[in-house]
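Quick note —
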Amino acid sequence: MLSLRNLRYFCAAFEERSTVGAARVCFVTQPAISGAIAQIEEELQVRLFLRQHRGLEPTPAAQRLYRLARKLLADTEAISASFRPGGELPFALRVLPSLSVERTGALLRQLRRDIPTLALSLADDEAPADAALTAATCADEGTEFVTLWEEQYVLLVPEEHPLAVKEALQLADLHGQAFVERTHCEMSDSWQAALGRGAVQPEVRARVHSEEWAQGLVAAGVGVTIAPLHAVQAQPGVVVRDDCAELRDVRRHIGLAFHAPAAGTLQQVLAACQRWVVSAAGVRPG
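Predicted structure written out below.
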């Protein structure tokens, strides 16, 4: 008889396209994942994966089993939840304020679709949380971190600003320029250090605590700013320059920070996040 544990391990391998990745998500050893897959293959008399250089390639049998297993696991959790007080799974998530509202919202919708009994709440800075959706540089010490997406930093420039049409941009071009400082950005100190090393001194005209205000002031012509691309909302009056030499290779990694081991609701949330990565990117997570 197929075990739920083996099916969970199989689903993780299917989503990660790797036994090593599945072991990381499930917090078990790689042999445990391989053993579970081998047991299922023996019981069903099918081959589930082809091993390739880039990872595991699911067979048609694996594609079919994944759909059935996901439904079975969801139904099993729904049965368990129905016997809990209220039938819900409480989950407190802390969210970094500088994240894209659109992208964060898409992830939260995925969680609610995949885990219908999830009672999601957003925790403030002082309240305890089950996990944090944050940047890797902001993750608490001692936590595990699973990357969900990456963000490139860009320069936002007022439409009529000379830098909006300059052919090649460098951080040195910010010297003496009116600047909107995003105080909530965890990279603020890094930018300040980088500008200092290059003796670049922009003229800070405003210090703001939200993306909405930063981009609104750029649109109003108050100054330029540096922001993560995925947090940028298209609006009139703002030109996005993603060709600044020093910013082109700068990335911030956004993901879930949590205390291991992941079990219960947290494990379900992590699995749903991984499926969201696959569906959003059209490829398996890196």
